[in-house]
Design goal:
heterodimer, A: mainly alpha, two-stranded antiparallel sheet, B: two-stranded parallel ribbon
């Protein structure tokens, strides 16, 4: 048994390096998308201390809006623009109707409010678009399909072009968000709110504007995620569960850390794939991805309760 | 806008049908799922079921002169909500249609006490075929073990299975695990290697790990017990992994046109066993168009109505309607009870001639149930995706009764013992 755990997996990796590369690539694709979703959670949490339960349904809603608009005859890229407009409208509506009346309420109330937003968006989405599976407009958006084959060490490595596109777009979006947060006035305002609400408000930062902005950014992230995952298996309400894959990323990386979300997402994406292929399937019957990331995050929390990159909170009494 | 109109139609129908039960109607609730992660596969089935009952109400005034109250209770495919729906609707119900193997397993002991027939066409617990033990449960016209048997026979016809490797890609859910006892038995008997590969609910749309395993293990065939978004996810990954589509076969719930349309021509050759088939020239479809669609009462659309799942929904409601009709004829009363319906469902005799009378020739193979045989074992056809639609690619296949029945009897007895005291039928002989 010890050989099966400690020797064989590594021997398999060495024996079939092309397969190992394929596993790492698939992990990277999943990881960067987890990181993207986690970033949506982190941005909202940093600026408002709200854990946004609605992030998953926002992915569904954005993807459904995109394919729904295109089905009505709107050109693909115009549909993207209009979908962004819808997500902006949603951000404004959530800030006005849900969050503003709840300013000053305990965090749990705000969290419950996002569950309410989730249920509302599920109902609205089903009324407007129906629950049927829809085909993502991958080709219409100019996203290349098909795959590129490599033969490293005489083996086989298959890279799907839409996965490559997803990785590039997600990486660009992450870089753009980092630049926005670090180099722009608005970005610094978001970070200031995350560091100290009272101090940020006292220097004139508008809470309402920032909230609309971060929810809109979460909407953009939802759209990109929806396109990437929808291109794999269609657009349906099943996409909602993808967002919950980001929860262990947040536990691992820390709810407030942008770099934690990125590194945590990539780590979980690749480690869960490696564990599933080399340990989970041969020794545990497979499907370890369902729990591996949570166990990993729990182990990290045992030693670092604030997550790998979260800030240690010291409260003086 | 179309969906808003549909919602208004549902609301109007709800108002007409009412949530309460009035006298002189047949209350046949459906624990449907039009929402949630599995809605894409639920909607066409529910639409087909509903349209058939609406057609009977409009064309014939219902069944035996009584309208059918076909109330839906939304479960979202959640077992907890399904049990709530069962409790909410069981009061006056003559039947319960649980629509998930998980819900079926939960309400199975309850229905044995409440004495309400479960109608689970083509799903649920396979040993429900044993009517002596499961006197209130019906998985007519075919069980999951029938499906597994027919798939293996089809594969055997391509070549001896001895020494072959079959990957069993399945949803990690009671539904996905249901055929395992039969497949394990056949693997031991026929000498093939069975490789079970579970897919978690959260992994349905990202099955790269499962397909990496398939690439590494190089199975000869992939047999899929998928549902909802899992089907499209698996077929997409199969295309990506270059797994030969000809060697991939799904159960009847993994043969949905909308899932295959996502991969389109690349899914050509993919197969699915099925006990129903969309015979688009069937007279019943013309009646539905006249009495339901043209009257503006259907929630479906032209494309969906040509698909396998919508047409299977029609067949499912036909099975229920035939059970009601048989019970009415037996008792001489139009207003039947749950107990009467049990008799009706135990005495179904859907022959080719009867299918012709119903305008459903070619939509389902003939089948017959008895007190002891609650499945009917209709057999099925192998369907193949031609890039645009499913077409029949085999003659009628029949499950191996000799292999299935001893296992059914053993597992049914095991269930009864584990759930003792379990009321059994005193009147049935051994399963036939």
């Amino acid at each position: 048994m010890l050989t099966e755990i400690f020797i064989k997996p590594f021997a398999d990796m060495v024996e079939a390096p092309d397969f190992l590369l394929q596993v790492l690539w698939e992990g990277l694709v999943s990881g960067i998308l987890y990181a993207l979703i986690a970033l949506g959670f982190v941005l909202i949490y940093r600026s408002s201390r709200i854990f946004n339960f609605a992030q998953g349904i926002m992915v569904v809603f954005a993807a459904l809006t995109l394919v729904g608009l295109h089905a009505m005859g709107v050109p693909a890229w115009v549909s993207v623009g209009l979908t962004l407009l819808v997500m902006f409208g949603l951000a404004v509506a959530i800030e006005r109707v849900v969050l503003r009346p709840l300013v000053g309420q305990p965090d749990i109330i705000l969290f419950m409010a996002t569950i309410g937003v989730t249920l509302f968006l599920i109902g609205l989405g089903e009324i407007i678009f129906g629950g049927e599976n829809k085909v993502m407009i991958t080709e219409e958006l100019g996203i290349p399909t098909g795959s590129i084959l490599f033969e490293p060490w005489g083996g086989l490595l298959i890279l799907e072009q839409k996965d490559i596109t997803a990785v590039i777009v997600a990486a660009l979006l992450v870089v753009a968000l980092l630049l926005f947060l670090n180099k722009t006035r608005m970005g610094r305002a978001i970070r200031a709110l995350g560091d100290d609400h009272q101090a940020a408000l006292s220097v004139g930062i508008s809470l309402q504007t920032i909230w609309v902005l971060v929810w809109f950014i979460a909407g953009i992230i939802a759209l990109v995620t929806g396109i990437a995952w929808g291109a794999r298996a269609g657009v349906s309400f099943a996409l909602e569960v993808i967002a919950y894959k980001a929860l262990p990323v947040l536990m691992l990386g820390g709810l407030e850390s942008i770099s934690g979300a990125i590194i945590g997402g990539l780590m979980i994406g690749m480690l869960e794939k490696l564990f599933e292929i080399y340990w989970g399937q041969p020794l545990l019957g497979g499907n370890t991805e369902t729990w591996f990331a949570f166990v990993l995050a729990l182990i990290v929390l045992l030693f670092r309760p604030q997550g790998l990159f979260g800030e240690k909170i010291i409260e003086r009494v | 806008m179309k969906h808003i109109t549909r919602l208004a139609a549902v609301a109007a129908l709800g108002a007409v049908m009412g949530t309460g039960v009035v006298a002189q109607e047949l209350f046949a609730p459906n624990l449907s799922y039009r929402t949630g992660p599995f809605a894409a596969t639920g909607i066409p089935l529910m639409n087909g079921q509903r349209d058939y009952m609406l057609m009977l109400n409009a064309r014939d005034g219902g069944i035996g002169g009584l309208p059918v109250n076909f109330e839906e209770c939304e479960t979202g495919y959640s077992t907890e909500k399904g049990v709530e729906c069962y409790e909410k609707t069981k009061g006056q119900a003559i039947v319960t249609q649980p629509w998930s193997t998980g819900i079926t397993l939960q309400v199975l002991p309850k229905t044995n006490v409440d004495e309400i027939p479960i109608l689970a066409p083509g799903y649920g617990f396979s040993p429900m075929a044993d009517g002596k033990v499961f006197q209130w449960a019906f998985n007519t016209p075919a069980s999951y073990w029938d499906a597994a048997s027919m798939i293996l026979q089809y594969l055997e016809a391509q070549g001896d299975l001895s020494g072959k490797k079959i990957a069993f890609l399945h949803l990690d859910h009671p539904y996905g695990k249901e055929p395992l006892p039969f497949l394990e038995l056949k693997a031991a008997e026929d000498g093939f290697e069975l490789l079970p590969i579970p897919v978690g609910l959260k992994e349905m749309q990202n099955q790269s790990a499962q397909w990496l395993q398939i690439r590494r293990e190089r199975p000869d065939y992939v047999v899929m017990w998928g549902w909802g978004a899992m089907n499209a996810g698996a077929i997409t990954e199969a295309v990506k992994t270059k797994f030969p589509m000809d060697n991939m076969i799904g159960v009847w719930w993994a043969g949905h046109d909308a899932d295959l349309k996502i991969v389109g021509a690349e899914g050509k050759g993919y197969k699915s066993i099925s006990w129903s088939y969309p015979a688009l020239d069937a007279a019943v479809l013309a009646d539905i168009k006249t009495h339901v669609v043209d009257a503006g009462n259907s929630l479906s659309n032209e494309e969906e109505m040509q698909g396998v799942f919508y047409n299977r929904g029609l067949v499912i409601s036909m099975i229920l309607a035939e059970g009601i009709r048989a019970a009415q004829e037996h008792t001489g009363n139009a207003q039947i009870t749950a107990s009467d319906l049990r008799w009706g469902l135990e005495n179904l005799n859907v022959t080719d001639a009867r299918l012709a009378e119903l305008g459903m020739t070619g939509m389902v193979p003939p089948f017959q149930t008895t007190c002891a045989n609650h499945t009917g074992h209709s057999g099925g056809w192998m369907l193949e995706w031609d890039g645009e639609k499913f077409i029949k690619t085999s003659d009628l296949l029949q499950a191996e009764a000799d292999a299935i029945q001893p296992l059914e009897a053993a597992k049914a007895a095991e269930y009864a013992e584990a759930n003792a005291p379990w009321a059994m039928s005193e009147t049935c002989d051994a399963p036939s």
